[in-house]
Amino acid sequence: MQQLFALGINHHTAPLAIREKVAFHAESLQQALKALTGQYPVHEAAILSTCNRTELYCATETPRAAEAWLADYHSLKPQQLSPYLYTLPQTQAVRHAFRVASGLESMVLGEPQILGQMKQAAREAEAAGTLGSLLHKLFQRSFAVAKEVRSTTAIGENSVSMATAAVRLAERIFPSLADQSVLFIGAGEMIELCATHFAAASPRRIAVANRTLERAQQLASRFNGQGLRLEDVAETLAQFDIVVACTGSQLPLVGKGLVERAIKARRRKPMFMVDLGVPRDIEPEVADMDDVFLYTVDDMTQVVQVGLSARQGAVTEAEAIIESGVGDFLHWVEGRELVPAIRALRDHAERMRRHELERSAKLLARGEDPRRVLEQLSQSLTNKFLHAPTQALNGAEAGERGKLVDLVARIFQLNKQ
To answer: Is 194 noted as a catalytic residue in this protein?
Structure first.
């Protein structure tokens, strides 16, 4: 029977250089899911791909098939991925999903964005036709558990988001953000959060560069900023003191050569850059330049740990809620596994009932005494219903007879009469 599995890599098991190799672009998720379930023995699948993790939740008898697909899809050899990959069987997979949704597995403990990302993963799987009843239940229970954790514990209090951390780092480098110009590359949720936090510091200038100019202008207008095309970045980069990038592009958009020219035009005035993209939007070699302060997602770890100790007490409470949720879900799964047997039993009884009903109807049509027909009907049904258990008891060997007697008594509740 198919089982739930979770497999993937995250910021605990793999460095950014590995995570970016297996990241999925949002536009390719549905196609990837269809390829997985269409070409491999995987019945249900959903992909969660964020800056900190790429995880595959699936229902299959052979989790190694999903592992092989993940490596093959990204043109990697299995041995390149295996040192960083975790594969979690059903109980662990359920617990892991609940922990992820509740923010216990995030780089920023208790951060709320992951819940929205999991909901989007479920929507993508549903749209691709790969979200079956098992995964649908898993995600719905994950969301319910996460809601309970966030509403009854202090897990999200005093948390420092990536956006807040970026502002704090910038404040360490520049005496006043009010004198700086900020460029945001991308226009997704993370950039929107970062722009909101930076705008609160009233920088001298804000600009948003995006593949779609209309989207860039729409976001920039909220902060009295300027919208730019991605192509404009090459000519305007030198004008900005702070650059925050997060686009989801599969290739870097800002290369070392471009930054070198910008620094030269700025006459060695320092530039603060934050690359929240996975894969990265800024070439890693930029970090080696003297006048550039480049921070990646993994570099932000120490900053986002602020307030962690205040939230550790809530972790124990959250884990208790999660364990209760895991037990409830596994109980549902076990009940689900009995459905085929229950359905077969009821179908068998229904066939006997219909056969005896048709026989009785014929006797009544011939004018037989109704009371006598009903008596025969009840006796015949009783004999047929009890034939199999009676035969099993009579044919049982000595070693199994006691257990079988107890089982029959339990099924028919004989001790309660």
So the answer is: no
